[in-house]
Every structure is written in structure tokens, then in C-alpha cells.
Amino acid sequence: MNNLCKLFFYFFIIGLYGVFGQETKTYNIHSHNDYLQNAPFWNAYTNGLNSIEVDVFLKDGVLYATHSKADIKKGQTIENLYLQPLEKVYSLQLGDQQGIQLLIDIKSEPYSTLKKLVSVFKKYPKVIQNPAISIVISGNRPKVEEYTDYPEYLKFDYQSLEAHPNEKIWDRVAMISLDFKKFSPWNGMGRLTREDLENVTETIDKAHALGKPFRFWGAPDSKTAWKVFAELGVDYINTDMPAKSAAYINSMAHRIYQNKAHSKVYKPTYGSDQKISPIRNVILLIGDGNGLSHISASVLANGGETTLTQLKSIGLIKTQSADDFTTDSAAAGTALATGQKTYNRAIGMGVDREPIINITEFLDQHQFLSGCITTDNIVGATPGSFYAHQLDRDHTKAIANDLFKSKLSLFVGGGSADFDQDLGLNGFSMVNQIEEIGTTNANKVGMFLSKNGVPSMMDGRGNQLADATRNGLQFLSTKNKPFFLMVEGAKIDSYAHRNNVAGIVSEGIDFDTAITEAISFADRSGNTLVIITADHETGGFSIPQGNMENGVIEGDFTTHDHTASMVPIFAYGPHSQEFQGIYENSEVFHKIIKVLGL
């Protein structure tokens, strides 16, 4: 790693210790020129900001909140906009009661303005006596030697990296503020140059060595800039966008993740890939919510490659449901399983509310065995679409009853509590250990991974998905019949709904371990087609920054819900090239039937 990368990563780890360590670091955000906001004070305070700046100009004995005499607006005074609200929020216990630094930037002559300020503050004893409120004077200030001539509740903004020798005067310094443009022309896009990074870092370190909090004014105001300043230890991050900066900075702990898991990359032989030869078995792996950025995050966190990225046959599928621009998992699962688009919430039902034959039922007519493996409850929307027929995905008991009537020979998933009947009555041999699936002589086998929801990787699920896939393939392949197996990595979607990057990455890498089992089986068999796709994208996920060498991923989101984005589809094995291109999700079913020659 070169020195610049080392420096970036050092500050990344230190600045975001709360993501990886035992406590969450908090950041102070400074609302620059706050009086220009649509709701001065209230916008910053309700978004949890800790520092608020107001310019003041003295005219005719009134302290206006304004940058200059020409910009004065009647009624907009420091009292109306700041002192009265400050008094109110603390006396009425409104909001989070966070500590507030009120930075008063004097734009008129300092001595007369300060004299008036002191006079005005006498009317607000609850403000000047409140330890949660600090008042700092900036802009046009008196001489440094005169700081001690003013009441002790007034502190001062210091604009030099040379400490004052007088201890009493130095004690009146609240913070150090400097013009960012003197150290770098960076506009907040892309990255700081090596020289600028070193210059900015040295400046911050010097301020901290003096024992004072530090702020840049005139600094770039963007997500990239906020993150860099947080990493570099700027104590008050300057912004003109209080709500957006607070939302971004305060969510960093959920959006930045250093991966520790690893999916060992399997290098396929490509012996059967894209060959025009008979297919005996089909394995369909579905990453729930697993869009291109989710896949990219797992790849980058895994050192830059996964088993999935070894595949050559790649396409895109469109996910819209029959009745909505954006699909849910039920309609998307039904489209994949039946070849027909349907309305959101439908499980194996058409737009006419009548059952549609699904792929496990169709293949049963051709002597295929079928199985479903999922990290969701087995009655979840995606697995349910491959064996059940219900008008609504929430008809849990009815979906569970459909499993008794299904053509499945294998199932693995969570949610034993959803079943009132003994599945053994329908011929399923129920096992308690995943390894038993691969060794049983039973005709049908089932296993519940949990009574209710299946734990996530972050909650200690371990290698259950890959182990179930390997043992499920072993079970099906010993029956001397062709088979279809659906494997779902369900919790990628769950964490994308929560906008949690750690969960997306850990579940995505775990999904790749199941893909490895499928691809290696396809290589051994020579007649197995593997298809990997998603039902939809979740979260509007993107990856603005990260560090591939150290497995660090920063993610960002546009929603907590599904999106209408196309999702990738990968294929490996005979006829895998048939899955290239761009097409509707319902075409996956028809392409499978076509390449099987049925």
C-alpha cells in the first residue's frame, strides 16, 4: 500500500472507530450562515446539529441577523431567531436537548456590537447560565488581549495556529477556525491530492496539539467532503445543508463496513459452459434484493472477485409486476417460477386470481425432482412462489398447507412455527442436522433452520446456506432423476430494507459461497445449468467510496423499499448463452423450459 493509501486508511479507521470498535463516534456539525435557512435555528436544532452560526449587524440599537446593512430584514434579529428559541427549547425540554454552540459572527464594528450583545444577553439568564449552551464570538472581534474584559460566558473564535502565551486569555478561546481555501483548492468532488491531504492533515493536527476544537470555514460542502472531514478529525464540520449533512454523517455507522468474511473463489473449468449439449439438472439461485451494487459491494469487499464474477454468460432482467412499476418479492418470485407476470402480493396466482402451474409442478410431469432452500422462512414469498398458490403472501397458514400438496422432494428454510401439521404425514423425512440431508435414503427430506426467522450471518448463522446447498445437491443427485433446485439468499433484501451495509455485504458474500457449491457441482456433473439472479433491487443502493485492499465498503441509499432497476442474471453450463441479453423476468421460466427441450 502506498503512503497516501495508508494515510487515508489510518484516518478512516480512527475517524470511524465506532463502526469497528466498541462505541459509536459522534460528530459535531456546524450550521454555517444558519440565519439564511428557511427555518433558522429550528432546522439545525431538530436535525441534531451542535453548532449554529448567526451573522449579526448592529443598526439603530438593534442586533439584526444579517450579513450586512444592505441585507437587513425587519424583525429578523438575533433575539427573535436564536435567543428566544434557545430559551424555549431548554425551558420546555423540547427535542433531544443536545448541547449547542452559538457562534455569533459580528459583521458590524466589534466594540459597540459586543456592548449591545452583553446588554441583550442580560435579558436571557437561562441562556447564558445554561451549561449546555456555549456562546462564541467570531468575525469582527476585539483585540485578543481584551478577551478577558468580557463576561466569562463569552468565548472567542481564534483564527491562528499560534497559541497565545497568556493562559487566562487562551482559556477564553473556544475553538480554532481557518479558511480551507488557504490549504487546498479542493471542491469536495473526487479526492484530495497527496500534497493537499498532507497539508490539511497537518493543519488539523496542529490545532489539536493546541488543545482546541477545530473548524474549517469556506470548506467544500458535499457528502464526500463531510466524510473526509469526519475521517480527518475536524471537530465542527461546516455545512449549509443541515438536514442532509446530519442524515449522512449520523448514518455513517450503518453505511460503512469493514468486511471480515470471505468467500473462497472457485475457478470454473468451463468444460460444459455455453456448450450445445443436453441439460439434466437446473439450479436457480436467487439473491433477494440483490442488485448490481449489492453484488459489487460483495465483490469489492471480497478482494475484488467472487465465484460469481468468474461467469461469462451475463444479462439483465426487467422486474416490473403486472400491476405496478415496482415489484414485490411475491410477484417477482411468481414471474420467475411460472413464466407469467402477476399482481404484487400474489403467490403462484395469475392476474385473473387463478393458480398458474409453476416450474416444480411442470417439471414433475417430466419426472424431475425439485427442491427449495432459503434463509427465509420456507413460507416466504420467494420460496412460496415455487410450490404454493395463494392470493396474498400473508396467507401464511394456507401457504404452509400448500407445501403438503407440493411436488417438492427437498426443502430447507426457517419457520417451523408456521406449520400446524406434521410434515412427515406428507412423506417428508424431517432431519435436525444439515449433514443428514446428504446422507439420508428417504424419498423426501425437509429441515427447519429455525422456529421463526432464520438468523443472519451477523447473528451467527454460519455456513448453513452453502452447507444446505451442498447437501441438497448430494441428496437430489443420488435419486437417478433429473432435478431442479431453487436456492435463495434471502437476507440481502432484509438488510437493504434497513439500509445496513454490513448486512448486505456479509449476506452477499455468504450467497457467493452457495454459488460456489452450485458451480463446482455443475463442473463435476457436466450436464447441470446454473442460473443466478435476483427478484428485484432493494434500497437504491450505491457505493460511493471504499477500500478494496482492506475490505471497506461505504454504501448509500435512496429508499428503504424496492426499486424498479433491472437486475443482473448470470448463467453457467450447457446453453448458458441463452440467458444473455435483456428481457422480462417472466422469460427466465420459458428459457429454462426451452434449453431443457421440454
Layout of helices and strands, plus pairs?
Layout: H1 3-15, H2 17-20, E1 28-31, H3 42-46, E2 51-59, E3 62-65, H4 78-91, E4 100-106, H5 110-121, H6 125-128, E5 133-139, E6 154-158, H7 167-171, E7 173-179, H8 194-209, E8 214-217, H9 223-232, E9 236-239, H10 242-250, H11 252-255, E10 256-258, E11 281-287, H12 292-301, E12 313-318, H13 329-338, H14 359-364, E13 369-377, H15 381-384, H16 396-405, E14 410-414, E15 429-430, H17 434-439, E16 445-450, H18 464-477, E17 483-489, H19 491-497, H20 501-525, E18 528-533, E19 537-538, E20 542-547, E21 552-556, E22 562-563, E23 567-572, E24 581-584, H21 587-596
Parallel strand pairs: 1-2, 1-9, 2-4, 4-5, 5-6, 6-7, 7-8, 11-17, 11-18, 12-24, 13-14, 13-17, 14-16, 15-16
Antiparallel strand pairs: 2-3, 10-21, 12-23, 18-23, 19-22, 20-21
Helix pairs in contact: 1-9, 12-20, 18-20, 19-20
Structure description:
With 598 residues, the protein is of the alpha/beta class. The chain has 2 domains: 3-8 and 27-250, TIM Barrel, CATH 3.20.20.190; 281-418 and 454-470 and 482-596, Alkaline Phosphatase, subunit A. Helices cover 33% and strands 21% of the residues. It has 21 helices and 24 strands. It has a 10-stranded mixed beta sheet with strand order 15-16-14-13-17-11-18-23-12-24, with helices on both faces. Helix 12 packs across helix 20 and helix 18 (464-477) runs parallel beside helix 20. The chain is elongated, with a radius of gyration of 31 Å. The chain starts with a helix and ends with a helix. Mean pLDDT is 94; it is low at 1-23.
